[in-house]
Amino acid sequence: MTHRTLAALLLVAIAASAQAQTPKEQFDAETKRVATRYADDKKLCGDEQDSGRRMQCLRDSKGEYDKAMTQARAQYKAGPSRAGTCHECGKVTQVSVNEKAGESSALGLIAGGVAGAVLGNQVGSGHGRQLATVAGAAGGAYAGKKIEEKAKSSKQWTVHVQYDDGKQASYTFDHDPKMLSGDRVQKANGSIVRH
């Protein structure tokens, strides 16, 4: 499914929830949004290469789904909330996921250098062997550094918000904030929470 198709579906869901008059209609719109989010999360989990991580991702997604459904049911049972002004409220305009490069340490550099030197020492004889050893150490150190950076990399979520007063801000999370474009949010303790 393309980003445009997802955006169109989200706009339809937002429009439907904005027109909802009754608590039942609001509940239906929220459960549809939660189900869509759960389906998207399961697709992301399917991309995970490691089976253990994939299963943990699926368990976490199911837990978040259950939590969101419980919250939606509780709000439905509580009835309509009082309308009031919300200070520092806004709407999520975009959520992006990026790969954050990990930091390397001397361990990767040294281990790669030693491995490269050992392999380089296996090539040639005399001065050629010495040059191959030095070149292998340098190449191995660089490779060790890059391997360690990749192994320590992590995902980073950036949520862009348009506040009701016209201001814009971005917030970075090291875990999935479970927010979608169109979600209402409120600033809280230097971050944002769903409103």
Structure characterization notes:
It is a single chain. This protein is of the alpha+beta class and 195 residues long. The chain has 3 domains: 1-83; 85-101 and 154-195, OB fold (Dihydrolipoamide Acetyltransferase, E2P) (Beta Barrel), CATH 2.40.50; 106-150, no CATH class. It is 56% helix and 19% strand. It is built from 5 helices and 5 strands, in the order αααβααββββ. It has helices spanning 3-19, 23-46, 51-78, 106-121, 127-151; strands at 89-100, 154-163, 168-173, 184-188, 191-194. Strand 2 (154-163) and strand 3 form a beta hairpin. Helix 2 runs antiparallel to helix 3 and helix 4 (106-121) packs antiparallel against helix 5 (127-151). The longest helix has 28 residues, at 51-78. The chain is elongated, with a radius of gyration of 25 Å. The chain starts with a helix and ends with a strand. The relative contact order is 0.13. The model has no long low-confidence stretch (mean pLDDT 75). Residues 174-195 are annotated as: Disordered.
Q: What is the gist of this entry?
A:
One of its GO terms (cellular component) is outer membrane. This protein is of the alpha+beta class and 195 residues long.
List keywords for this structure.
membrane, OB fold (Dihydrolipoamide Acetyltransferase, E2P), alpha+beta, 195 residues, 5 helices, 5 strands, 3 domains
Task: Outline the secondary-structure elements.
Elements: H1 3-19, H2 23-46, H3 51-78, E1 89-100, H4 106-121, H5 127-151, E2 154-163, E3 168-173, E4 184-188, E5 191-194
Specify the number of helices: 5
Distance between the termini: 28 Å
Averaging pLDDT over every residue, what do you get? 75
What's the helical proportion of residues?
Answer: 55-70%
In what range is the share of β-strand residues?
15-25%
What's the order of the H and E elements? HHHEHHEEEE
**Poorly predicted segments:** none
Number of domains: 3
Shape: elongated
